[in-house]
Each structure stands twice: as C-alpha cells, then as structure tokens.
Design goal:
- The complex is a heterotrimer of chains A (266), B (281) and C (357).
- By secondary structure, chain A is mainly α.
- Chain A is 80% helix and 2% strand.
- Chain A folds into two domains: 3-33; 56-265, MetI-like (MetI-like fold).
- Chain C has 357 residues and is of the alpha+beta class.
- Chain C is 24% helix and 37% strand.
- Chain C has helices spanning 43-51, 93-103, 108-122, 137-149, 167-184, 195-201, 219-224, 229-234; strands spanning 3-14, 17-28, 32-37, 58-63, 66-67, 78-81, 155-159, 187-192, 204-209, 212-217, 239-248, 252-257, 260-265, 276-281, 286-288, 296-306, 310-317, 321-328, 341-346, 352-355.
- In chain C, helix 2 (93-103) crosses helix 3, helix 2 (93-103) packs parallel to helix 4 and helix 3 (108-122) crosses helix 4 (137-149).
- The mean pLDDT of chain C is 88.
- Classes of the chains: A mainly alpha (266), B mainly alpha (281), C alpha+beta (357).
- Chains A and B meet through helix 1, helix 3, helix 4, helix 5 and helix 6 of A and helix 1, helix 3, helix 4, helix 5 and helix 7 of B.
C-alpha cells in the first residue's frame, strides 16, 4: 500500500465512524432520555430511574398500539410470505413476457414513494366501501413488503438446481409431496428471513399507515400523535423496548443469513 | 393431449396471477389516477371527468415552485448521500476485510429503527439548544446558538440524510464487493496508479449500484411528508406536505391525487430510466 | 543469451506456514520458462512475487541486474495473464487492450495502430467491439494475452492461463501461445500443473515440490534424467522396481530385484555395495521379444490396454510386481493376448537408479 492509500484508508475509516455516530445519535438520545431527566436543557445526572419502564404497564394506549402493531405485523408476515412465495414460484417456473410484467407490478409499491401507495389504497378502499381499520393497514403493509419477500424467495429458488424437483417427480412424488418434502425444506430459511424482515418493516411503517389507519392506532401512529404534546418518559421507554426488539430481529436475520451461506459453501 | 392440459394449467395460473396483482396493486393505482380527474364540491366528490385539478396545478402560485424546490431538495439529499455513502461503501469493501459485514450490519440497523423517533430526536439535536449547537459552541466555532439547523430546509435535508443514508450504502457496497480481486490487480499490472485504477475500472463497475441506491434515496426524499412536517417549519414546505394536507384539513382528495399523480409520473420515469441505465452496463 | 530475471533466496511464509523457501532461479532473456507444480505447491505465490502482488518474506528479485523488491506493481515492466483472465467488464475488447497504452498517455493514433496490430496477432479483429461477457473462454483468453503483450513488457507472466479451457481448446491455445512467443520474442514465465503442457511449451521447466525446486532443466533433461524418484513418476509413466546393489564395476551396476538381476550402466557416484535402490524405467524404454543373456525376463501378460497409436502391456512378475511396457502399434504388429508368455529386455543404457534412504 502506498502512503496515499494508507492516508485514504484512515480518512475513510474516520468518515465511517462519524457516520455511525450520526446515525445512532437520535436513537441513543431516546434511550438516554428514558432513564434521565433534563431541566432547561441541562441533564440531571442524579435522575437515573427505570421507573418509566414499570409505569409503562399502566399506559393503556401505548400498550394497545403496541399490540395492534404486533397483530398487523404478524398477519402481514403470513399474507406476504404466502403471496410472495406464489409469485416467486410463478416467475421461477414460467417463461415469457407475463412474468416480467407481474414482477414489475409487484415491485411498483416498493419503488414508488410510499405516499402514492398509501393514497392509491385509500381511494380504492373508499370506492369499494371498505372502512379503514387495522385490516386495511394489513393490506397496505402486505403490498409494500411483498417486493422484498418475493425477491428473497425468488433468489433462493434460482439457486436450486432444476434437477431437484425433477428427481422428486422421477421418484414418483406428486406435486404436493414434491413441494412438501423437497422444495419446502430447501427454501424454508429464505421464508423465515423474508418473514422476519416483513415483520420488522411492518412494525415501523408510518407513511402508508397514516392514510389507511382510520380510528385505530399502531405504535408509530401513536408516536406521531403524541409528538405534538411532546414525549413522556413512558413513550421513550416504549421506544427503547421496540428498538431492542427490532435490533434483535435484524441480528437474528443476519445470523440466519450467515448460517445459511455457510451451508451453501459446504 | 398432456401438452394441452399442461398449457391449460399453466395459463390458468397465469390468469390467477394476473387477477391477483390487478386487484391488489393495479386497480388501486388506476382508481388513484382516475381520481385526479374528479373534482370536489364541499365534501362531496364529483365523479366526472375534468382537467380542473391540473389547471389548478399549472396556474396556482405555489404548486410549481414548491414542486421544483422539492425536486432540488431531493436532489441535494441524494447527492449528499452519494458523497457520504460511496466512500463508506468503498471503505467497507476494500479496507474493512473481515469486519466488513459486521460494520455493514451496524450501518443497516438504524434503517429499521423507528422512523418517527429519528425525526423527533433530530429536533432535539438540531434545535436552538440542541446537541449540535452545544457542540459547536463548546469547540468555539460559534459564539451564539445558531438557528441554521431547525425549522427550515436545512433541517429537512439533514434529517433525510440521516434516515436515508443506509439505503445508498447497501447496493453500492454490494456492487463494489462483487469486483473480483484479480480485476483490481490487473489494473495495477497494466500500469495504473491507485487513483487511475479507481477512476477507470473500480468506479465504472460500481456505478450501477450507486445509481440504484441514489434513486431510492431520491424517490423517498421526494415523497416524504412527515419529515418536513416535523422539522421543516414554515419554510420547509414540500410537495409531499401539500399532497398530505389535501387529505387532512383541506379535504380535497381529487386535487391531492392530481398532485400525487404528477409525483407518480416523475417516479415512474426515473425508475424506468434507472432500469435502462443499469441494465446496459 | 543473458539472464533477465533472477530470484535469489526468495522465501515466503504466512505466519508459521511456509509457502516457499530459498528459491534460486535465473531466467534467460526470451525463453519460455515454466514453473510446474501441483496445486498448493506455491507456484502461484512465486509468480505473484515476481509480478509484485505479494511481497517475499526474504530474498531478492533482480531484473536486469537491479534489485526490484520495492518496485510497485505498476512500475514493473511485466504484465500478467491472469488465470480467469480478469478482463475489465466495463470495457469492450478494444478498450481492454488499449487501456494500458492510454494509461501510459500514448497519443490516440499510436494506440489505435498498436491495438489493431495486436488484435491481428491474436486474431480478434472482428471482435473488438464486443464486451468481455459476450466472448467465449478461448476468446477471453486471447484478449487477456493481447492486453498483456500490447504494453510490450520485458516479461509476460502467465498464471495457469489454460486451466479453465476444455481439452481441445487447450491444445489449440498451447500451439497459439508457442507461436506468439516466437513472434514477439519476449520472455514468458508460465505456470501450470500439467506436465504434458509444460513439456510441450517450455524451453526450460522448474519443478516446484515441497516449497522448493526439485529440478530445473530442459524438458528432455527432466524426462530422461530426473533427479529424483518423485520426478521420474511425475513426468509421464514410469516403472519403479526396488532392489539392492549386488556389485559395482566401472561401467555396470548390477542390482538384485524380486525377479532377478538387472544390469544398469554406471553413471553414478553416490551408489555403493548393498544399498537399497529403486530402478526407474519408462514403459517405452522396455523391449519385447528380445532374448539376450542378461537383463532378459520371461513372464505372463496380465492386461492389454489398446490406446490408439500405442498399446500398453502390463506384465505380471513374482511378488505381485507389475511392469508396464509400451509398444508402438505402427512398428510392432503382433497380436498380444492376456496370459500369453512374453520376454522383455532392459537395455542397460536406459533407466535411472535412485538411492533409497
């Protein structure tokens, strides 16, 4: 390495550290404020307390919104993985222009600004007379995460050799048996990864949800509403808990990916 | 005979698939587009074809300037993300060796962390008595707290960069990481100095990844309406915020839709253009 | 001829694992020099040290009597043809080849002339607008070679360039490489694990084994006078017959083997009475149906392998020793069947003796 290169390396390293700090600053502050009080912009270092976390039990609204978010997330996972698998399998087993067209349409809600997907569904639901509720939110989330789920499953399907399914049929398996005993075990990790990712995204989706939620609230919407009056320490505490949850989920996904990659290597 | 059955089966699935995406994605998008040609009378939506909304867009005093200001804002965010994100992706792919995936993970995690909270907390970071002002004063760079950072365009730009930056790092890193080691060695072998190797080979190969990330950032920045609402103040008025306001207080869905459909057209053009550009290389 | 590139006591280790130790080598100007070794022998590392991609742990690399250990890659007058070609995917064939000249800031006219010239040498004039991924393996190989020779390097380093090609194409490319090397008169340092390829292409070969050179010499030297038992069987097939030295006189050594006494011409200095030795002789150096007083043995045919131009006959000797004899089908037109009785004869002029420890 030349001296200029070593110099570049250190500069880029410092930039990376700086960016990591910038990305985490808002998050770290939130966690900090859930434990400490501030008075007139000054931190009161003696005010450490985890009381907000225990008090959270009495915050019915926050808890309810959390439950709603988890419900929406779970149903979204089920729908998006089923539909995502269906289309991935369709793309994988068919040829022609149609599959390209379907793929493009599936990608649209993910590629377009969320405000457009949100508006389109809002208007659609109004026209067909479907009242806004958590269920319409589920539909919105499913359409939004579908592209990611689809892509993850399709990538996995493309790595499988065609002979895999052919040999299953050759050995006398019918379509269902071939799916259950051969295809599913081979792609199940990708389904898990896709599902976890869908859940993580759904949990925090705000822009589409704002249009579709109606009178219910999910957790991000509750935060949005609370923001006007300022955050209580209990809100900060709930944020901290959700942060722990999403971080765990992302780490879990990363762990599964790294494991399944090793599996391919051997 | 089996061929015919197979063909029939396969076309059934094709039809089913087509109907599915039509119902869940295409019809909503089409009904959305059709709304932009409707008008509103008090609180009633009049389902009759009219170009009134588009006329309003063209003649109204604020819409076109806001549209271009928002384009400029999204462009600024995009360029800032490219300038910051590319070197980081480069650092990870070329110099971080074994810890590259770990650092990448650290950079990605904030992407999944509460969007609202990040914006909210940026207020207490950028504000008059916020973290940035305190730090700048501590180091003696400014003597008075600055109002440069909150409730204006700058705040919107900074916040969007913080939120969207990871999106550009991921595809750029992927395209840089895919460059085989020996292609880089070949550039040196042929006589390139490190910078020439970067300029003529590494950068062109990684460009599609950078473009994909940049387009993601651009489109999301263009359509965002929560960030300007929370940190933008009055001068941070963006196109997305105008669209959103037509669905709240103003209650003029057709007009909001018309504004949004212009956003849609711009986005689709950008997506198709990107697709074309990145496929060619 | 004078030496262009010299390696003095080059060694390389990663931590405690040794890859190369005390490599000494002198490569002549304009020769086709091959480094031959099995995978993991360190041959690629050696080439990468010459190219400047890897720093040696010790020793000197000398080019035209100048030590170039610290010379960065881009300043060395060498060019490499990489194993998987390493063509730049963002440039077409023409730009791939012209890239090195562009970097050297030659004027466009010169670049065009040189690239066109090299294109016609490698026979790719019709493909200059193609992108690398639109080319076949053999064509990519030619582009890689063209890209290296257009810069007119003093030495071209080739890192198993034919490894990825199928057998037929490989033969074509071997001929092609040999032609090119004659045409452009440049030193080639070539790496392979394929003995036949090495013998066919090279002026000289260095065999790398156990991190060191086992022998350096012309293909004929290596084939007929290998310095070790390992080399004897490494280059082509070889019968290895164990025995002890019975007696020695000035021009003949007689050894005792499981099936009788064999006389071998004495060209050795290190062999003494009663030593354990191995007699190595190639299948085509054994003669059939020549009944002489000495060195002649009779036995049964175990197996016959017809190979087209030649036939291999495997003979069964006592103690389960198998001897392979190769006959040229054009010369010896005899029907040989399993279980036939045959006579073979070892000419004392052929074969080599190796002392066993």
């Amino acid at each position: 390495m030349t001296r200029a290169e070593t110099f570049t390396k250190y500069i880029l390293g410092f930039l990376t550290i700086f960016v990591v700090i910038a990305l985490y600053a808002p998050i770290v502050l939130t966690i900090f404020y859930s434990f400490y009080k501030t008075r007139k912009g000054k931190v009161d270092w003696d005010s450490f307390s985890y009381e907000p976390y225990t008090k959270l039990i009495f915050e019915k609204q926050i808890l309810e919104s959390l439950v709603n978010s988890v419900y929406v997330g779970l149903v979204t996972v089920v729908f998006s993985v089923l539909i995502g698998f269906y289309f991935a399998n369709y793309y994988h087993t068919h040829k022609g222009k149609m599959r390209e067209f379907l793929q493009f349409v599936i990608f649209l809600p993910f590629l377009l600004p969320p405000i457009i997907s949100g508006l389109a569904l809002l208007i659609f639901f109004r026209e067909v007379g479907l009242p806004r509720s958590l269920n319409t939110v589920v539909i919105g989330h499913t359409i939004f995460v579908l592209a990611i789920v689809y892509k993850i499953i399709l990538n996995k399907l493309e790595t499988l050799k065609p002979s895999l399914m052919e040999s299953a049929y050759d050995l006398g398996a019918n379509k269902l048996q071939a799916f259950w005993y051969v295809l599913l075990p081979n792609i199940k990790l990708s389904l898990v990864i896709a599902g976890l990712l869908a859940f993580t995204i759904s949990l925090d989706e705000t822009l589409i949800t704002l249009f579709l939620i109606g009178d219910d609230t999910t957790w991000p919407i509750k935060l949005w509403a609370k923001m006007r009056v300022g955050f209580s320490k209990q809100v900060n505490a709930s944020v901290t808990l959700i942060l722990i949850l999403t971080t765990t989920l992302v780490l879990l996904i990363a762990w599964i990916i790294s494991k399944s990659e090793k599996k391919i290597m051997y | 005979m089996t061929n015919i059955i197979n063909y029939f089966q396969s076309s059934i699935w094709t039809i089913v698939s087509f109907i599915m995406v039509t119902i869940i994605i295409l019809i909503p998008l089409l009904s959305f587009l059709s709304y932009s040609f409707f008008t509103v009378d008090n609180v009633e939506i009049i389902h009759e074809f009219s170009l009134y909304n588009f006329k309003e867009f063209l003649t109204g005093e604020i819409y076109i300037p806001t549209f271009f200001r928002t384009l400029l804002l999204a462009l600024t965010v995009m360029i800032a993300c490219m300038i910051t994100g590319y070197p980081i992706a480069y650092f990870l792919a070329m110099y971080a060796h074994r810890s590259k995936y770990f650092i990448l993970l650290i950079l990605i995690i904030p992407l999944f962390m509460s969007y609202i909270i990040k914006i909210y907390m940026m207020r207490s970071i950028l504000g008059y008595s916020g973290l940035i002002n305190k730090l700048l004063m501590m180091f003696g760079i400014i003597s008075e707290p600055s109002e440069f950072f909150l409730y204006n365009q700058n705040a919107v730009i900074i916040t969007l960069i913080i939120i969207l930056l990871p999106l550009i790092i991921i595809p750029t890193f992927t395209s840089l990481e895919k460059i085989p080691r020996n292609i880089i060695e070949a550039t040196y072998d042929i006589g390139c100095k490190p910078f020439q190797s970067f300029r003529y080979v590494i950068f062109p190969i990684s460009l599609p990844g950078l473009i994909v990330g940049a387009v993601f950032v651009f489109i999301l920045a263009l359509g965002d309406f929560v960030t300007p609402q929370l940190v933008g103040g009055t001068s941070g008025f963006t196109y997305g915020k105008i669209i959103y306001s037509n669905f709240g207080m103003a209650f003029n869905w057709p007009f909001g839709t018309a504004l949004a459909s212009i956003l849609l057209i711009v986005s689709v053009i950008i997506i198709l253009l990107t697709n074309y550009l990145t496929r060619k290389t | 001829m004078s030496s262009i590139l010299e390696l003095q006591n080059i060694s390389k280790n990663y931590g405690s694992s040794v890859v190369l130790k005390d490599i000494n080598l002198s490569i002549e100007n304009n020769e086709f020099f091959t480094i031959l070794g099995s995978s993991g022998s360190g041959k690629s590392t050696l080439l990468r040290i010459i190219g400047g991609f890897v720093k040696p742990s010790g020793g000197d690399l000398i080019f035209n009597s100048k030590v170039i250990n610290e010379e960065p890659i881009f300043k060395r007058p060498f060019n490499t043809v990489f194993q998987d070609y390493a063509l730049f995917p963002n440039m077409n064939v023409y730009n791939n080849i012209g890239f090195g000249l562009k970097i050297r800031k030659l004027d466009p006219k010169t670049i065009t002339d040189k690239v066109e010239e090299v294109l016609s040498i490698v026979g790719l004039n019709d493909f200059k607008k193609r992108m690398p991924h639109e080319l076949s393996g053999g064509q990519q190989q030619r582009v890689a070679l063209a890209r290296a020779i257009v810069c007119e390097p003093k030495v071209i380093l080739l890192d198993e360039p034919l490894g990825a090609l199928d057998a037929e194409l490989r033969k074509q490319m071997q001929l092609f490489l040999k032609d090119i090397q004659k045409k452009i008169k440049t030193t080639f340092v070539f790496i392979t694990h394929d003995q036949e390829e090495a013998i066919f292409l090279s002026d000289r070969i260095a065999v790398l084994n156990n991190h060191q050179f086992e022998q350096v010499g012309s293909p004929k030297e290596l084939y007929y006078n290998p310095k070790s038992k390992y080399l004897a069987s490494f280059f082509g097939e070889c019968n290895l017959i164990d025995g002890t030295v019975d007696h020695i006189n000035s021009d003949i050594i007689t050894i005792n083997t499981a099936f009788g006494k064999i006389n071998v011409k004495n060209k050795y200095k290190n062999i003494s009475q009663n030593q354990n030795v191995t007699f190595a002789i190639r299948p085509e150096q054994i003669f059939l149906n020549q009944n002489k007083d000495n060195n002649s043995f009779s036995t049964k045919v175990d197996r016959v392998e017809f190979k087209g131009a030649v036939t291999n006959i495997i003979l069964n000797f006592p103690k389960n020793i198998k001897i392979k004899v190769q006959i040229n089908n054009a010369e010896e037109q005899i029907a040989i069947n399993e279980n036939d009785q045959f006579n073979i004869y070892f000419d004392p002029n052929f074969g080599n003796l190796f002392v066993n420890d």
